[in-house]
Design brief:
Helix content is about 30%, strand content about 25%. By secondary structure, the protein is an alpha+beta fold. The chain has 2 domains: about 110 residues, Rieske Iron-sulfur Protein, CATH 2.102.10; about 200 residues, Naphthalene 1,2-dioxygenase Alpha Subunit, Chain A, domain 1. Bound molecules: FE2/S2 (inorganic) cluster (FES) and fe (ii) ion.
């Protein structure tokens, strides 16, 4: 892990160079050095595993199986047969399976990842032992019913990683909380452009004058808090918002009065509102200039605005951001951008970009580190 001292000082109050958003060679490096080292939000357990026992998903550029056995324990494994690397499930999706059977030579695994069947087993060498060939696990931990995966064995626990989030939002999630809406968008920009934008509190009063700004209220009420991997913007809700929305029972004073907007490294945004709405926005890289958004809105149906209203409001807000971020990507691609100064209302972007830089260069040596430094130096 790189010490904070080695983070270039110009990153403290300025932004990353445009080349870090446009160079196609960077994406595999980001998958390896960022996404495979951190906790990644993948969805709500109930929704992920609905009427299935195995869920195949693409995450961090690879395929993972989430399994649920008879006692409801969730586990995650690489979608990869230990014999000769065949995929168990070829397509992402939900599967109702009692075992995982490899399509190549039919090695058979329990949903706990144990090898339980091997055709022609007597023809392997005498020291062949099934227990040497269990499925390769991926760390899976939950906060509430929300599931995260982590490929790194050295990353901290999920609870540690999430910093103040469990304390501040635990009561926003109740037994009545349901997935209300799941929206997907395809955006022609680098994933970091879109995430920088979700962390940008400078543009809200300008670009979201009629959508987000009336909910978040005036800039002079903004409060910031930072953990290692999490940043928070807290704003008291406006009188107008309070007059139109019920308050979820059981929240503490801050929860009743305010709007929590968390950025979670590397690619997630989490909102908590006093009416019990909990919103996850995940930004998945596709190519260097294309990302996909997965927007999940949870809430208590009786307290939440009607679904069509939620859908319309989030679509309008997202469309405003898509226009801006696709434009920024073109600006970076011009090669003419020299990083500008950071406003205090962009502190959360600076926090995220410092982590990106720190993770990208960790473990890099020689030519690859030189190339990365050259990209960053394009100022
Ligand atoms: S590759 Fe799976 S059984 Fe051979
Ligand atoms: Fe925005």
């Amino acid at each position: 892990m790189v010490s904070p001292d080695s983070i270039p000082s110009q990153l403290q109050r300025s932004f990353l160079a445009g080349a870090l958003y446009t160079d196609a060679d960077l994406l595999p490096l980001e998958q390896q050095h960022i996404f495979r080292q951190t906790w990644l939000y993948v969805g709500q357990a109930e929704d992920l595993m609905r009427s299935s026992t195995v869920r195949a998903i693409e995450v961090a550029g690879t395929s993972v199986l989430i399994t649920r056995d008879q006692d409801s324990t969730l586990r995650a494994f690489h979608n990869l047969c230990p014999h000769r690397a065949a995929l168990f499930c070829r397509e992402p999706g939900a599967y109702a399976l009692k075992h995982l059977v490899c399509p190549y030579h039919a090695w058979t695994y329990s949903l706990a990842g144990n090898l339980v069947g091997v055709p022609q087993e007597e023809r392997f060498s005498e020291d062949f032992c099934r227990s040497d060939y269990g499925l390769t696990p991926v760390r899976l931990e939950q906060w509430q019913d929300f599931v995260f995966l982590c490929f790194s064995q050295t990353a901290p626990s999920l609870m540690e990683y999430l910093g103040r989030i469990p304390t501040m939002l635990n009561r926003h999630v109740t037994a009545q909380t349901r997935l209300l809406l799941n929206l997907h968008y395809s955006v022609q920009c680098n994933w970091k452009v879109y995430h920088d934008n979700t962390l940008c509190d400078y543009h809200v009063a300008i670009a979201h004058r009629n959508t987000l700004d009336p909910v978040q209220g005036p800039v002079d009420r903004y409060e910031y808090e930072f953990d290692e991997f999490v940043n928070l913007l807290y704003t008291p809700t406006t009188k107008e918002w309070r007059s139109q929305n019920p308050i979820l029972a059981g929240l503490d004073e801050r929860g009743r009065e305010g709007f929590f907007t968390f950025g979670i490294f590397p690619n997630v945004h989490l909102l908590g509102l006093p009416n019990g709405l909990v919103v996850w926005l995940r930004i998945d890289p596709v190519t260097v200039n294309h990302c996909r958004l997965n927007l999940e809105i949870y809430g208590v149906p009786e307290l939440s605005p009607p679904i069509d209203e939620l859908s319309r409001d989030f679509a309008a807000l997202t469309q405003e951001d898509i226009v801006i971020t696709e434009g920024v990507q073109k600006g970076y691609a011009s090669g003419m951008y020299r990083p500008g100064p950071a406003n205090q209302l962009e502190d959360r972007i600076v926090h995220q970009q410092r982590l990106i830089w720190k993770y990208l260069q960790t473990g890099l040596q020689g030519d690859r580190l030189t190339v990365l430094n050259e990209m960053k130096a394009l100022k």
